[in-house]
Amino acid sequence: MTKLGIGSITLSTLFAASFAASVSADPISLLITGNVDPVCEVTGLSTVSYNAGPLDQGLSLSSSALPIDVKCNYKSGAVITLATLNGGLTSAEATGEVVDYKATLTAGALGAFALNTSSLGAGGTAAGVFSGATLAAGVPSTLQIEILDDATFAGDYTDTLTVTIAQN
Predict the structure, then answer these.
(1) Which is nearest to 65 in space by CA: 44, 83, 41, 86?
(2) What pTM did the predictor assign?
(3) pLDDT digits (tens, 9 = 90+) for 20-29
């Protein structure tokens, strides 16, 4: 009788171990997602018109730095472009007269670049390439305008300077 009892204990132990191994749930996968919206922008320029003052004084006039903010959160960085519409300050009253200026954009500690109209024609551009976590978070920056020469003839002189930022 002893043999029969041991055999039945062994058989039931094997059956229990086999049953326990087969009772498992199918694995479940969970897809976790997130998103960061792309942003490339220039903001904070509260002045959309800058008056350089009298252009016939023979002075090199320089503006106080105009505050702007640049931000671009692409890993590849950004290209910031300054573009001159007229290639300098021009006047309808003094056709052919051009007063050159230099516009310098300083993107905080990331660096600076300048557009100098004395070496550009109408539609000329200058660009700086910047990248990094600082740019992705937003960089307090400045735009400085420096008048390089004076006007000889009477008139109102204008140019449109455009600042753009785009993914590099």
Answers:
(1) 44
(2) 0.76
(3) 556 788 999 9
> How many angstroms separate the CA atoms of 95 and 3, rounded?
120
Contact 127, 139 (CB under 8 A): no
Candidates 75, 84, 81, 78; CA nearest to 139 is 78
Are 147 and 161 in contact by the 8 Å Cβ rule? The answer is no
107-156 per-position pLDDT tens digit: 999 999 999 999 888 889 999 999 999 999 999 999 988 888 887 788 88
Angle at the Cα of 141 from the Cα atoms of 140 and 146, rounded to 5 degrees: 155
- Measured over the CA atoms of residue 79, residue 80, residue 82 and residue 83, the dihedral's sign is positive
Beta-bridge partner residues of 145: 103
Domains and CATH numbers, the chain: 40-167 (2.60.120)
Cα 94 from Cα 39, distance rounded (Å): 42
Cα 141 to Cα 32, 42, 90, 111, 112, distances in angstroms: 37, 10, 27, 10, 9
Question: Who has greater pLDDT, 2 or 63?
Answer: 63
